[in-house]
Description:
single chain, mainly alpha, 10 helices, 81% helix, elongated
Amino acid sequence: ILLMEEGDYVKAEEEHRRAIALLEKLYGPDGSSVAMSRNNLGLVLREQGKYEEAITEHRTAADVLTRRLGPEHPRVTTTRTNLALALWASGTLDEAEAEFRRAIELDEKTLGPQHPSTAADHSNLATVLLAQHRLPEAEAEARIAIGLMEKSLGAKHPHVLDTRGNLATILHDMGRLEEAEAENREGLRLREETQGADHPDV
């Protein structure tokens, strides 16, 4: 994980593959620890643009964890969310949408509708719907995400500001230029307050 945070994805991939091989010897291919290592490998593969391999690892991990822990376990939801992100990155939008909708349903059951993870699921779904040019649906999901995030994280949190930026893009693509400009200006103002005028995101 440290190698991944440092951006050394090639070595991180090697280490994860080595860990999976060792864990499989100890616990067999269906061990929960093996599945979590596969999930982590999938993250590294996605960062390298190896989307199909990442999808395979996340899907395998999700299947194992579902059998071992049950479909509503938080680790299952996390892994399925990572699968959805890999599907989105690969352009497999219909399946990504289905996975994000499933993640919303599971997070609402296990964590509650106000939880930041539930809000993130709505934000991710909005991004997929935007890519599908389903703009009214994307706007609705983005607004849900912003409302939830503002309650749990505060209006100035980076995740809120990122989602407001996505909302501005959606509004722009719908031809609602004044609303899009207002969102962008408010987001810029909040970023300057929290991150400073010299921050790269500003």
